[in-house]
Amino acid sequence: xxxxxxxxxxxxxxxxxxxxxxxxxxxxxxxxxxxxxxxxxxxxxxxxxxxxxxxxxxxxxxxxxxxxxxxxxxxxxxxxxxxxxxxxxxxxxxxxxxxxxxxxxxxxxxxxxxxxxxxxxxxxxxxxxxxxxxxxxxxxxxxxxxxxxxxxxxxxxxxxxxxxxxxxxxxxxxxxxxxxxxxxxxxxxxxxxxxxxxxxxxxxxxxxxxxxxxxxxxxxxxxxxxxxxxxxxxxxxxxxxxxxxxxxxxxxxxxxxxxxxxxxxxxxxxxxxxxxxxxxxxxxxxxxxxxxxxxxxxxxxxxxxxxxxxxxxxxxxxxxxxxxxxxxxxxxxxxxxxxxxxxxxxxxxxxxxxxxxxxxxxxxxxxxxxxxxxxxxxxxxxxxxxxxxxxxxxxxxxxxxxxxxxxxxxxxxxxxxxxxxxxxxxxxxxxxxxxxxxxxxxxxxxxxxxxxxxxxxxxxxxxxxxxxxxxxxxxxxxxxxxxxxxxxxxxxxxxxxxxxxxxxxxxxxxxxxxxxxxxxxxxxxxxxxxxxxxxxxxxxxxxxxxxxxxxxxxxxxxxxxxxxxxxxxxxxxxxxxxxxxxxxxxxxxxxxxxxxxxxxxxxxxxxxxxxxxxxxxxx
Length: 619
Description:
Elements: H1 3-15, H2 34-37, E1 59-64, E2 67-71, E3 77-81, H3 87-93, H4 98-104, E4 106-108, E5 115-118, H5 120-134, H6 139-142, E6 147-151, E7 162-166, E8 171-175, E9 178-182, E10 185-187, E11 190-192, H7 213-220, H8 230-244, E12 253-257, H9 264-275, E13 280-282, H10 287-294, E14 301-303, H11 313-327, E15 330-334, E16 340-344, E17 349-353, H12 361-364, E18 367-371, H13 391-403, H14 411-425, H15 430-447, H16 449-455, H17 462-472, H18 474-478, H19 483-493, H20 507-516, H21 521-528, E19 534-538, E20 545-551, H22 571-576, E21 584-585, E22 593-596, E23 599-607, H23 608-611
Parallel strand pairs: 12-17, 12-18, 13-14, 14-17
Antiparallel strand pairs: 1-2, 2-3, 4-5, 6-7, 7-8, 8-9, 10-11, 15-16, 19-20, 20-23, 21-23, 22-23
Helix pairs in contact: 7-8, 8-15, 10-11, 14-15, 14-17, 15-16, 20-21
């Protein structure tokens, strides 16, 4: 939206003078009561259609394609298609203040001069004109739903800007230590329309040492996590991310995995007890269903029993949605009206399963994987209970108070950057810095560094802190291997089933024998050519260098090996070219030409000696 457009929306809201926190109490005098209104029916400045009356409860926002967009008299977003205006449409916009519309666009009886109806065309013209004055808008960029957001000149920077909480029927900010509340409204040209209410922040300040995060953390430690020190901290950090989703630069998701009876669902129940209706929870949903349920909200999503199976398409769609949400990338889908619809999801997701579905490297790099083990005997059968229903409200207020720096308090942006620096110093990749850095920074913001140190994190030793996290997460990150190594894994694991002596080795087993010199080149080629591959060697003795030849041709190469994978139809070429040039050779011209299936073809040459030790972990 242009600066002019945002200024116009601000002006439109300023013109709707009263505070909208108490919409139900808004005065709506009887139509025709000139004393109550201050002017006679239909006699306001600008009547009937030059401009909207001052204090109009319906606030125009502009036009988005075929739709005129308003915040209606109930404070909710309301779109009217240009071809669907009617009396019912106008009355719907003014549903909370029906007398307003009859007083300002009255139709009079010719005999008695009493108001006996509505001049619909005049009302429609005024509403359309008001939107036209504001110009074109994009609802996706102009409207924010429930949840946390940032505003102000620093809002686009990592974890900075003023924090705003949209509680559905109230918009909340902490200013100079005090909670400021307003009704559905616009801030900096962005609209926060009315929605069903969710958590409202605690009215009084909640310092870190009094935060309900300490109560929650004590409950979390009653589970038997695989990593006794790190995991409860990560889960607590995720609860913070669940509340602050739209305000964060990165929204990691977590996956709770473990056998029956380890407390996965109980842990999700605890999260629900804390967050209440702020959490969107489901055990049987699809990605489109979740997307439609969220709309413009940045609320957290919990999916229980996201189990793997023969058909992972539903789970894959939901994981794709969580991956988009992590970085708030924009996605585009077609609509039933044959129009492109864009959406941005900014929610934190939590999943649980006994057997998680198949995941890509992109999924795993945005996720903290939490393993739950069998409950200890002292804990078995005892479900943690939230005794205080205010725990979520107090936690939200503590997060709002701690968001910005003040006095000796660093605020989220600085804590987050400190964690990223520690993880960067330990040579963890950027995405790991964002994922673990966000969760750990939020946990520190919620508990304070002293509580984390007491729990076992080496907070007081910054030089050791990043390395400690790296060691704790090494097995998790080991699965996040480079695309080219995964492609070779698939190739090497393929069984050569059509071998005439009855032996059915894998490609990798043939290459191991060839590399060790236990299988000569001719016999190795004979076996590899059965699956569209070949091999060659340079030099002799200690100078011998063995190579795997992978044809570039989608027709003559290992098409069957990669069938129904992301590397099918010649896609293996793109993947292998992502390897270091000393591992996969692609620039030696005719030296790369090999005979496969009776044809001379150009190949990518995998140096089997250089491959050893390469690509074990993408760091």
